[in-house]
Write a structure and sequence with these properties.
alpha/beta; 10 strands; 6-stranded mixed beta sheet; about 15% strand; single chain
């Protein structure tokens, strides 16, 4: 009889990990989705208006809205903290730029992937010699974020290559990149997305080598949340989810061009040397027009590199590079006076912005206003009409940046009211201002 009881107890107490996982229900409509994330430019941060932004923030908000959920964010400073929050079960999902790894798949419920990345070894540009291949990493000081995919990758490489050593640090990858830029550390490892964004602020960061490719960032959930994981995968693979990914790519990454060390080094130097002389003027222009000071400063840098005496071969001049006709229409009598030029340029951009339809959303409205400043309102109106004829959205910058170059295409411009224009120029113009804006914003209070 005792043997039978023991047998029944053993049969009813499967100690396998799978049997111990209790299935958990997704949030009900109207409830909150509890999400752990990490503070950083490629995950979640507060923008210049102190509103939440970031790639992971935007994706999660779209996913939650599609299911009628609010989002309750749990903000952490490191990957280790995010994983601990996930493991404790205090959140239902982690969206924090986490690389999908077999080791993490064993600990957590794997969610959908959304971004392809390359892990890159990053050192200071002046380090000699730079480690260009695995054999060169012998004796190099390498510090990486604790509990990261980088630590796991290096641990594997250290088993196969003698001399590779590294140290884990609780600080976030962005902070370690700053330490490398300041030459406090020799090298670190970061995802290509992070390097792409941070490197513009610290142009002396050098990509020494690609450590691994083919990795993907995605979401993770606590064990037991299989139903929610499946819902997230279905949404991410749906047309709405794919549109959300494309929107994130366009908003946060696509406008960042090829890295230009000389240009970005000069920008960072001029932020210290030149910008303070004009900062109050940009703030005054913001008060007068409502346009953000950092946007105006970024536009002025694109126009003249903050040189109040700049003159182009075509006759535009001053820190905002006003034409003679535009200056006269604005009442600017001396285009080389930085106060008059900044005030006039800001009022002119505000006019371009105000003349656009009220229902164009931001930031698209601002991008179209900048394009109008650069190429002229008539050509932008032509391009908007052409966009409608081609089945494109004239209110979306992503569509308009494809249509504007057609103003230089003889198949299209003869049918437009204002004719030929170098339509690729405003696309380049807006792209560079957006790139500068990300760097300059951090320097303007």
């Amino acid at each position: 009889m005792m043997l039978l009881i023991v047998s029944m107890l053993v049969a009813g107490c499967d100690t396998s990990e799978e049997a111990a996982v209790v299935p958990l229900d997704p949030p009900a409509e109207g409830d909150s989705l509890k999400v752990a994330t990490r503070n950083g430019p490629t995950t979640y941060y507060l923008d210049r208006d102190e509103l939440p932004a970031g790639p992971e923030h935007d994706l999660i908000n779209r996913f939650a809205a599609a299911h009628g959920w609010d989002v309750e964010w749990r903000l952490h400073e490191s990957t280790a903290e995010v994983l601990a929050s996930l493991e404790s079960g205090e959140v239902q999902l982690a969206a924090a730029g986490l690389t999908h790894l077999p080791s993490r798949d064993e600990r957590f419920q794997r969610g959908p992937a959304h971004t392809d990345i390359i892990e890159q070894v990053v050192c200071h540009r002046e380090m000699r010699p730079l480690p260009r291949q695995l054999e060169d990493m012998k004796g190099v000081e390498i510090v990486v974020t604790a509990d990261s995919s980088y630590a796991e990758k290096l641990a594997t490489l250290a088993n196969d290559h003698t001399g590779i050593d590294f140290r884990e640090d609780p600080r976030a990858t962005e902070i370690l990149l700053t330490a490398v830029a300041d030459q406090e550390l020799e090298c670190t490892i970061a995802d290509s997305t992070i390097v792409q964004v941070v490197r513009r602020h610290f142009p002396h960061l050098e990509i020494a080598m690609n450590l691994a490719s083919g990795d993907q960032l995605g979401w993770y959930l606590p064990r037991g949340h299989g139903a929610l994981a499946e819902m997230s995968r279905q949404w991410m693979q749906s047309p709405e989810g794919q549109d959300a990914i494309e929107t994130v790519e366009a908003r946060y990454y696509a406008y960042i061009g090829e890295f230009d060390f000389v240009d970005l080094r000069a920008l960072n130097r001029r932020i210290d040397d030149r910008l303070p002389r004009f900062l109050e003027l940009f703030h005054q222009a913001e008060q007068a027009t409502g346009l953000p000071a950092d946007l105006l400063a970024s536009q002025a840098y694109q126009e003249s590199h903050w040189d109040p005496e700049a003159v182009s071969p075509t006759g535009v001049r001053g820190i905002m590079m006003l034409t003679q006709n535009t200056a006269e229409s604005l009442g600017v009598t001396n285009r080389l006076d930085p106060a008059a030029s900044i005030d006039g340029g800001a009022r002119y951009l505000a006019d371009r912005h105000q003349r656009l339809p009220d229902d164009i959303p931001e930031p698209d409205r601002t991008y179209l206003a900048l394009a109008s400043y650069n190429i002229g309102r008539g050509h932008v109106l032509d391009a908007r009409e052409l966009a409608r004829e081609l089945g494109k959205n004239p209110d979306a910058w992503e569509d308009m940046k494809e249509v504007l170059p057609l103003k230089a295409d003889e198949r299209y411009y003869p049918q437009t009211r204002y004719g030929y224009a170098r339509g690729f120029e405003p696309v380049h113009y807006v792209q560079r201002i957006r790139n500068y804006l990300d760097v300059i914003s951090a320097s303007i209070d």
